[in-house]
Amino acid sequence: MMTTAPSAAGSIARDRFGLGWRPELAAGIFAHLDQIDMLEVIADDYFDVPRRELSALRTLGAQVPITLHGVGAGLASALPVEQRRLDDLARVVEVAAPVFWSEHLAFVRAGNVEIGHLAAPVRNCRTLAGTAENLTRARATVGAWPAVENVATLIDPPGCEMNESDWMLALCDALPELPLLLDLHNVHANALNFGFDAAEFILQLPLARVGAIHIAGGEWIDAGSVAGERRLLDDHLHPVPEPVYELLRFVAAHAPQPLNVLLERDGAYPPMPELLREIAAARAAVARGRAEAAAALHQPA
């Protein structure tokens, strides 16, 4: 049965570690389920498939816990989300019965024009109200709140009245039951691209609502506007860098609730042992954070 929040008390008994389901990785995944606690499936891939493929997704969920991750709703917008997309999500969620479902705090279209990627929204009161309304409609249609994910960006959207953490905190204040999916590579990339401290950003969020975490890798690209200026692109095509594991350790030390940690890889797939090593590194990072938190509790006053 799907829970309304991945961090809800009693819904998860322990930290779990997994990766995104991709057909190219299927053989390796099934051969190593002893090292994979859960899988994240892209919900949009199943919007227009025959019923038998949806049934196969439910069969997959019977073998290993799955989550559904939406990528195209465009919830973080002053524009109303398309009801058709919410209905599609609801249908897939009903059949697949995931542990939870998630979507991005992203802007993806204006009217009928698709921009082709997950863009950071203009952070102002208008988009804040629109996002809260879209999320409320998503909750009513699907039957559970999505865990919402922070996004990476190469530019600071023009017209912003708030920084990212203040905007997210205001959204959480408006929707007290809203769970969070914290993408640590997105935090890392934005911190480097815009010169803020990633750990401070994390501490500004309501960490008690974080039940799921994404880790991934990216690459540096030429920013173009100034010679030698670069931006870190979150492309999910490269190994997880060490600073992201350090952020994972940091979160585990400050968020005592069980966490679902999911490795994202969308192409340039390495051999399966390399992906399993990244999952093992994530386990080790969380274990270090848990040990630090336990040691702090036992320090003399």
Could you say what the CATH topology is called? TIM Barrel
- Estimate the mean pLDDT confidence: 92
How many domains, as an integer?
1
What is the architecture at the second tier of CATH? Alpha-Beta Barrel
Give structural notes.
The protein has an eight-stranded parallel barrel. The protein is built from nine helices and twelve strands. With 301 residues, the protein is α/β, with parallel strands linked by helices. Helix content is 40%, strand content 18%. It has helices spanning 26-31, 51-63, 83-96, 125-142, 164-174, 184-194, 198-204, 242-254, 272-297, and strands at 16-20, 38-42, 66-69, 101-104, 107-110, 113-119, 147-149, 180-183, 210-215, 219-222, 230-233, 260-263.
Name a few traits of the molecule.
single chain, 301 residues, alpha/beta, TIM Barrel, 18% strand, globular
Please give the structural blueprint.
Elements: E1 16-20, H1 26-31, E2 38-42, H2 51-63, E3 66-69, H3 83-96, E4 101-104, E5 107-110, E6 113-119, H4 125-142, E7 147-149, H5 164-174, E8 180-183, H6 184-194, H7 198-204, E9 210-215, E10 219-222, E11 230-233, H8 242-254, E12 260-263, H9 272-297
Parallel strand pairs: 1-2, 1-12, 2-3, 3-4, 4-7, 7-8, 8-9, 9-12
Antiparallel strand pairs: 5-6, 10-11
Helix pairs in contact: 3-4, 4-5, 7-8, 8-9
What's the short version?
The chain is an alpha/beta fold and 301 residues long.
